[in-house]
Amino acid sequence: MSIKNNKKRFLQYELGLLTLNAALSTRNGDAPVYAKGVKFNKRAKEKKFFREFLEKLEYIYVMGGVTEEQHIEFIQKTSDDISKVLGDKLHDGRFRIGIAQKLINLHLKYLWITGYIEEPPHCPIDGIVRDKAKISYNWTTNDSIESYMQAVNDLKKVASARSLSVWELEEFHRRDE
Fold this sequence. Notes:
Blueprint: H1 3-23, H2 44-62, H3 68-86, H4 97-113, H5 127-133, H6 145-159, H7 164-171
């Protein structure tokens, strides 16, 4: 394997690790991602599944041309498909829309920033983005594509002439910065 391929493989793995850590750590005791009995050190099968999902995501978006409507449908389908496959391992049997959008949008942000894909249609919407934009959206508990779309529309008003991805990149600061 060439050094270029090794670098790409390494970067994809590390970006996947960052994505999974952020998207699957809700910090909301009432709305965890995993079901109560699923221990942290017993999630290897689930992590493998999520990594395979991220590879598929990369393949779809690296081809380019994904419309906003397709992106929204992909978030809904991801939520439903992961719920079907991992339902017995998930809190209330669901991979909620809010978690799905964070997983997808955050990974796409990383891929965009590194120049691997074109600008994604949306930015990850989490508590920091919600608070910065002063919108009403709880990504950890949301399981409605309509609520997600409302949050996107609210963000578009705040972003004004900028795209959501550019607005979030320019405005995003961790709370401790």
